[in-house]
């Protein structure tokens, strides 16, 4: 009869309703099925007869249900899918995986499908069988989805775990095969040729009555873990510049995979650079744990409002922030807090280094205490140096790790020095940020969302100024002043607007420059 689906596991959400089967219960609600200990596995296709399938295609007379109470999802395993459309998709995928779609070497993973019948990841394998033609029986495990990109992005997760399941099955089957092969020569050769032996089920081939229960548990875990890996975000409006920049860091291949932060690297150059330059991006520092500043409001409380205002002023207008300390975890947490004041495109961070890096490489630079700043930057660079140290105090032996970290944060001493003279007035965006941080009635989550909205508001002003500058030809100072009035910005906001242009996405820049050239 050709390839057949013998076992299927699928998630069933509470609001979904299953299609009627050949059993007496014609329609079963998802909630009602969740209370059942088993389900019938009669074929759901209307043309199927109960005696159509041979012993080799049998699985379990009853199915299995696993309930995920947190996600309110039932994972149901049965001989065939309950939904007619899913049955049709899985049936077509089954036929193609064992007939038309064959990967090199016959065994292994392959991808095929279309938008109408679904997209399929098929992992084909064979099981040794002394009674089968060619001494083996071919199977495939299928993952069927309508979302091509989601399935392809799940490939690196699914393939290794499907391989683990297959190795478990074939290992059991090989034990049975070797045992039968020893007994095989004892049978008369004429009898083995004349007698027609029916196909055997997976239970017979593995000599394991619980093999389908094991498959059920394995498939449930794979489906749940795969679903938890990748999440979808609902955008309630046009994407922000930050989200576009995140997308620009991803490169999609023809197969639909996403290469994140892809960059061609010359290995010889990397080895030479790593041998000459000792950066603290080593695994030891990257994984170092210790006390940390939790967010921007926490940093303001530790620094005090006056020091925080000066530091934040340097941040929002693009001056380089150099933090020097022996506590790598503190340095990193300071940068993570300060980054919330800027668009993502304006943040270039070297979190902890053993040598000074120029401001064009990074506007956030962490240094070990032994590094001395080059003399030339004292006159040529706009920066602020923040030195973080600890007050001398004897630790208490009875303190827990959490109490010790809290005590250490209270003992932090911040010293700030800068050759750069700041403008008398800070940008208006900074004043609004500080007002939100000082408002104790606002929770940290509310402040975080407010900063995101405020940054996006000012990025819209930056877009207008960028288009005004690049697309309009020669502009006089009077023209610029009028534009600033229109967008609700003042003279003290100019340094911020100019620096935040670096936060514009490449997509927006190219669009404006292309439009500018075509209009000339």
Provide an overview of this structure:
Helix content is 43%, strand content 16%. By secondary structure, the chain is α+β, with helices and mostly antiparallel strands. Strands 12-13-11-14-15 form a five-stranded mixed beta sheet. It has a three-stranded antiparallel beta sheet with strand order 1-5-4. A three-stranded antiparallel beta sheet has the order 6-7-8, sandwiched between helices. Helix 4 packs antiparallel against helix 7, helix 16 packs antiparallel against helix 17 (444-471) and helix 17 packs parallel to helix 20. The longest helix is centred in the N-terminal third of the chain and has 29 residues, at 155-183. It is elongated and about 95 Å long. The N and C termini lie far apart (70 Å). InterPro entries: FLCN/SMCR8_DENN (IPR037521), FLCN_DENN_C_sf (IPR044886), Folliculin (IPR021713), Folliculin/SMCR8_longin (IPR037520), Folliculin_DENN (IPR032035).
Topology of this structure?
Blueprint: E1 8-12, E2 17-18, E3 28-29, H1 30-34, E4 64-68, E5 73-78, H2 84-98, E6 108-114, E7 118-128, E8 136-145, H3 148-153, H4 155-183, H5 189-194, H6 202-206, H7 211-229, H8 241-248, E9 250-252, E10 258-260, H9 267-276, H10 283-286, H11 296-303, H12 305-316, E11 320-324, H13 328-338, E12 349-353, E13 364-367, H14 377-380, E14 383-390, H15 401-410, E15 412-417, H16 428-438, H17 444-471, H18 477-486, H19 494-500, H20 506-519
Parallel strand pairs: 11-13, 11-14, 12-13
Antiparallel strand pairs: 1-5, 2-3, 4-5, 6-7, 7-8, 9-10, 14-15
Region (Disordered): 18-52, 269-289
GO biological process, one term: negative regulation of transcription by RNA polymerase II
Domain UDENN FLCN/SMCR8-type: 55-505
């Amino acid at each position: 009869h050709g390839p057949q689906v013998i076992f299927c596991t699928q998630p069933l959400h509470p609001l979904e309703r299953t299609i009627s089967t050949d059993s007496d219960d014609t329609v079963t609600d998802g909630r009602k099925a969740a209370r059942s200990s088993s389900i019938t596995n009669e074929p759901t296709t209307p043309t199927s007869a109960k005696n159509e399938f041979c012993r080799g295609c049998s699985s379990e007379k009853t199915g299995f249900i696993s309930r995920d109470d947190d996600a309110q999802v039932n994972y149901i395993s049965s001989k065939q899918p309950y939904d007619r459309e899913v049955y049709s998709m899985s049936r077509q995928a089954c036929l193609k995986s064992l007939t038309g779609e064959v990967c090199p070497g016959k065994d292994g993973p392959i991808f095929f499908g279309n938008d109408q019948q679904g997209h399929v990841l098929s992992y084909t394998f064979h099981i040794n069988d002394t009674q089968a033609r060619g001494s083996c029986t071919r199977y495939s495990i299928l993952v069927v989805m309508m979302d091509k990109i989601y399935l392809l992005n799940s490939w690196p997760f699914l393939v290794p775990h499907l391989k683990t399941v297959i190795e478990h099955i074939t290992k059991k089957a090989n034990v049975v095969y070797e045992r039968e092969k020893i007994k095989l020569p004892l049978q008369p050769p004429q009898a083995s040729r004349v007698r027609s032996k029916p196909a055997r089920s997976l239970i017979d081939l593995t000599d394991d009555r619980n093999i389908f229960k094991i498959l059920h548990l394995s498939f449930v875990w794979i489906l749940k873990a795969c679903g938890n890996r990748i999440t979808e975000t609902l955008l309630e409006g046009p994407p922000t510049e930050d989200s576009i920049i995140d997308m620009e860091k991803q490169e999609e291949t023809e197969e639909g995979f996403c290469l994140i932060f892809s960059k061609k690297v010359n290995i010889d150059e990397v080895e030479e650079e790593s041998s000459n330059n000792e950066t603290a991006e080593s695994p030891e520092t990257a994984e170092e744990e210790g006390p940390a500043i939790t967010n921007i409001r926490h940093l303001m409380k530790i620094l005090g409002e006056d020091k925080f205002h000066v530091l934040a002023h340097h941040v929002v207008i693009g001056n380089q922030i150099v933090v020097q300390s022996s506590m790598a975890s503190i340095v990193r947490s300071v940068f993570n807090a300060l980054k919330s004041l800027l668009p993502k495109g304006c943040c270039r961070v070297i979190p902890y280094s053993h040598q000074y890096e120029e401001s064009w490489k990074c506007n956030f630079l962490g240094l070990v205490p032994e590094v001395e700043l080059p003399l030339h930057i004292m006159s040529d660079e706009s920066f602020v140096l923040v030195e973080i140290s600890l007050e001398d105090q004897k630790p208490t032996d009875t303190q827990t790790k959490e109490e010790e970290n809290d005590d250490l944060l209270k003992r932090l001493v911040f010293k700030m020095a800068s050759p750069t003279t700041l403008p008398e007035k800070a940008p208006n965006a900074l004043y609004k940020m500080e007002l939100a941080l000082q408002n104790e009635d606002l929770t940290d989550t509310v402040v975080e969302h407010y900063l995101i909205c405020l940054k996006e508001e000012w990025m819209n002003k930056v877009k207008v100024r960028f288009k005004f500058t690049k697309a309009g030809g020669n502009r006089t100072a009077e023209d610029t002043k009028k534009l600033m009035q229109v967008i609700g910005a003042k003279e003290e906001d100019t340094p911020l607007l100019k620096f935040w242009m670096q936060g514009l996405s490449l997509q927006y820049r190219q669009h404006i420059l292309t439009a500018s050239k075509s209009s000339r």
